[in-house]
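REQUEST FORM: STRUCTURE PREDICTION
Request ID: SP-0412
Submitted by: Lab K.M.
Chain count: 1
Length (residues): 110
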Amino acid sequence: MEKSILLSTIGDTPANRIADFFIEGRGIDYTKTDVANACGISRPTAYKLMAVLAKDGFVKKTRTIGRAVLYTLNLENTRVKALMKLETLLLAQSFEEVGAKPKIRTAASA
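STATUS: Completed
RESULT:
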């Protein structure tokens, strides 16, 4: 897994990997197994961290398919909004460093 600009800034921990994964895939819902596989962490770790993130309102349940519960990013959560804003600022800064003019979608325009 290549480290994103957000992970490079906030630190590469399993919880931050999950947060980054959901921010990158906002609008899509995922199972805990999807999260574990995509983030390169064990399923027990993903299950434990997803429970905490759901309790904190960072992610929310969207639907259940069989026994699998799917989750998506909670765009109303204050921490989510702050991390998305940070990511937007970091991307804009990186584009400025290479002299490009980015076309970045903000949470308001999404």
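NOTES: The chain has five helices and two strands.
Reviewed by: T.R.
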